[in-house]
UniProtKB/TrEMBL annotation:
Protein name: Metallo-beta-lactamase domain-containing protein
SMART domains attached to this UniProt entry: Lactamase_B
Protein source organism: Deinococcus aerolatus
A Pfam family assignment: Lactamase_B
InterPro entries: Metallo-B-lactamas (IPR001279), NDM-1-like (IPR050855), RibonucZ/Hydroxyglut_hydro (IPR036866)
Lineage: Bacteria, Thermotogati, Deinococcota, Deinococci, Deinococcales
Entry-linked PANTHER family: ACYL-COENZYME A THIOESTERASE MBLAC2 (PTHR42951:SF4), METALLO-BETA-LACTAMASE DOMAIN-CONTAINING (PTHR42951)
Coiled coil: none
Annotated ranges, domain Metallo-beta-lactamase: 30-216
């Protein structure tokens, strides 16, 4: 997702429900990034959309680095979560250990990722100093990091992307959801991903968290997980009333309007309206309509 107003400054957020050992940083409407300070290590969860933005995060948390190992976890390989990786190489601003799933490493080393970066660099000078850096430590399945006082359980949560992972911190009852959950709703690409996305949301909900922190949406409430699940149920119930869902695949927005599941109607259920959320969620809504129609048509 590309913000129409790219951020230049990072803001640190504080919330009474969020433990102070979780440092929460926001770059405008683009993305949120976290740094978790444990007794043994400081771990950055994602590295923002540019080195310039991530450098501001590093500056803010540098006093917490003293006596701690520096780790970096990429939740997935989307550009707004990994383009600051180079700051943690041996030659970077804050050398550390880069960690991600094997699938995320594969995506970062792919020709598609290189092509995407070249296109962005040709269109926007803020990406000029971005270099794709893949993790040097990978895992498959789940991973547990023991920080002494805090435990970070890294859980596969595919759906938004096949390589996506989220973080569960049981001592704090906190989920760092990445893009597995979002406000107002997450992106889903294709009917086959609906069931996968729902399963990931249900997996996180089963943890019974007290706090859920997504990378987009700015909320802390664990109710976000149920709201995201209910959103997909709403689309399915409304579009399921249409005859022959396959006939609407090339007209998902028209199908939504006819079925009472337009973008404005979907947002209204969540207490929002188009002007109160970033514009890219309209594309997310169209994607979800199309995916739901595919699912209803049995085209998964």
């Amino acid at each position: 997702m590309v913000s129409p107003h790219p951020p230049t400054h990072v803001q640190e957020l504080r919330h009474p429900e969020v433990d102070p050992r979780i440092r929460w940083f926001r770059a405008g409407e683009e993305v949120d990034t976290f740094a978790v300070v444990t007794a043994r290590f400081l771990i950055f969860v994602d590295t923002m959309a540019t080195p310039a933005l991530m450098r501001q995060v590093i500056k803010a948390v540098r006093p917490d680095v003293a006596g701690r190992t520096v780790l970096v976890l990429n939740t997935h390989a989307d550009w707004d979560h990994v383009y600051g990786n180079r700051l943690f190489t041996p030659e970077g601003d804050l050398p550390g250990q880069l960690i991600a799933s094997e699938a995320t490493r594969d995506r970062l080393l792919s020709g598609h990722a290189q092509d995407r970066l070249r296109q962005q660099q040709a269109q926007d000078a803020r990406f000029a100093d971005v270099t794709l850096v893949a993790p040097d430590m990978t895992f498959s399945g789940r991973l547990t990091l023991h920080g002494g006082d805090l435990t970070l359980e890294v859980l596969p949560t595919p759906g938004h992307t096949p390589d996506h992972v989220s973080v569960w911190i049981p001592e704090l009852g906190t989920v760092l959801a990445g893009d597995a959950a979002e406000h107002p709703f997450p992106q889903v690409r294709g009917g086959a991903q609906l069931a996968v996305t729902r399963a990931s949301l249900e997996r996180l909900q089963a943890l019974d968290p007290r706090v859920v922190l997504p990378c987009h949406g700015g909320t802390t409430t664990p109710g976000l997980l149920m709201r995201n699940l209910e959103h997909f149920e709403f689309l399915r119930a409304q579009l399921g009333q249409l005859p022959s869902p396959a006939d609407w695949l090339d007209r998902p927005q028209e199908a939504g309007e006819l079925a009472g599941a337009s973008y404005a109607q979907a947002l209204a259920r969540l207490g929002e309206q188009p002007g109160t959320v970033p514009a890219f969620y309209q594309d997310f809504h169209t994607d979800a309509l199309h995916a739901t129609l595919e699912d209803l048509a049995g085209l998964r």
